[in-house]
Amino acid sequence: MNQYPYELLIRMSPAGVAGVSLRFAADQPNPMSQQLQTYVGEPRPLAAEDLQAGQPLAIALGVAATAALAPYALPPQ
Fold it and tell me: How far apart, in whole angstroms, are the C-alpha atoms of residue 43 and residue 21?
């Protein structure tokens, strides 16, 4: 099953960012109809070293997106 990043979740609190999670999904054929269906997994906490509790949403979004997509970046040429 080939998983891919599906959804980036950022939890907020009155003080700012409370946590970040990443959900993965996979497309598989339905056994009965053979049509592709998307199966979405449970959120997994995302460890972003530069993310600090209470950061503004714009900064947290950039840091979280960078951490979530880093494994899928193309190698430098």
Answer: 6
